[in-house]
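Q: What residues go here?
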């Protein structure tokens, strides 16, 4: 289900007058140019991640005022044919905080209302909004979403570990978990050659280590092939450009880490390693190098590591977040006045849960 390209003016219920709303009619380049003007960037809101990677139809909405982008969202559509009902999923959006502008709660309200108007009222879909994992902004967005009648869903899958990347190197070491600090000391003693870049060669070397890891571990999970987008991600506008950190041992790459500064957050995006890297504890040296890079080359306060993952990954991220970081619980917010859409999405959730159960069983065998 994909709407025809639409452009219209809007007089918002939330004091954002003279908005011009563009729906499904921007080129990828224009979308990225607009997105780069915001502080709340996320790769899930790029045209790359939102290009039907998960069997969904991609939609987008951008509101401008006198030609200046004010807010927008990339939306994944899962619809059942004939019924024309289904799910509209906003992953880590909408974006609404223009870089350099004071925080405007009314703008966020207008963004959410625009999503409701388009995807619930006009298309009769079930809307889910997943806010970005920002320790300072998420509470504000959560309050506004609840106040507008969106209901928080019961999920723990969106929780994210975050590291306070604004600390000095000495304070950062003190914040680390005790075991993490010991492993970092051992990793640094191995004299790994850590290089950070974004060249085609850097990307190709990372992808090679990643492919070998996937094959060795027989990994299967949604989004596993998003790593194929790395060449495009390293060529996005500066405000969201991906970089690659590689750990070399005896001249060969043994581990890699893809990360980015997206607006006012640092993100860990992809990671890969081989058995040699595990022995050398290369992951500790890589993450430490990235944290130092963020401190020296950006103004971000928080470095997001993603969800807890399996017990080993959880222990790693928890120790890295340390005393000054946190595991930030994130809820998704639901809105749907259409009963048919509710029934359809309930069936979609059942199918998703069955798929996830099978995938967890496969990973455990």
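A:
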């Amino acid at each position: 289900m994909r709407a025809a390209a639409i452009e219209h003016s809007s007089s918002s219920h939330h004091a954002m007058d003279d908005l011009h709303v563009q729906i499904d009619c921007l080129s990828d380049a224009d979308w990225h140019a607009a997105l780069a003007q915001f502080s709340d960037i996320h790769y899930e809101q790029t045209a790359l991640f939102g290009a039907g990677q998960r069997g969904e139809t991609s939609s987008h909405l951008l509101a401008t005022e006198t030609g200046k982008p004010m807010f927008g969202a990339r939306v994944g559509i899962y619809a059942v044919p004939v019924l024309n009902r289904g799910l509209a999923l906003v992953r880590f959006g909408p974006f609404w905080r223009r870089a350099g502008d004071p925080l405007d709660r009314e703008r966020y309200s207008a963004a959410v209302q625009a999503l409701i108007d388009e995807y619930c009222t006009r298309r009769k879909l079930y809307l889910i909004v997943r806010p970005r994992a920002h320790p300072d902004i998420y509470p504000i967005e959560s309050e506004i979403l609840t106040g507008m009648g969106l209901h928080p869903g019961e999920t723990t899958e969106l929780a994210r570990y975050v590291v306070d990347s604004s600390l000095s190197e000495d304070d950062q070491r003190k914040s680390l978990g005790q075991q993490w600090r010991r492993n970092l000391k051992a990793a640094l003693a191995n004299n790994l050659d850590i290089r950070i870049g974004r060249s085609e060669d850097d990307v190709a070397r990372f992808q090679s280590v990643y492919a070998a890891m996937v094959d060795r571990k027989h990994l299967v999970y949604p989004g596993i092939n998003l790593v194929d987008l790395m060449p495009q991600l390293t060529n996005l506008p500066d405000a969201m450009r991906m970089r690659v950190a590689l750990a070399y041992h005896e001249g060969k790459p043994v581990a890699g880490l893809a990360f980015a500064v997206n607006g006012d957050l640092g993100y860990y995006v992809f990671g890969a390693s081989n058995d040699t890297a595990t022995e050398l504890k290369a992951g500790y040296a890589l993450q430490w190098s990235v944290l130092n890079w963020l401190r020296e080359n950006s103004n971000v306060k928080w470095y997001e590591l993603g969800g807890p993952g399996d017990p080993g990954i959880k222990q790693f991220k928890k120790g890295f977040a340390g005393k000054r970081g946190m595991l930030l619980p994130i809820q998704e917010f639901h809105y749907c006045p259409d009963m048919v859409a509710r029934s359809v999405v309930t069936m979609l959730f059942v199918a998703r849960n069955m798929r996830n159960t099978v995938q967890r069983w496969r990973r455990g065998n």
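A: Context that may help when evaluating the design: The two ends are 37 Å apart (CA to CA). The chain has eleven helices and 15 strands.
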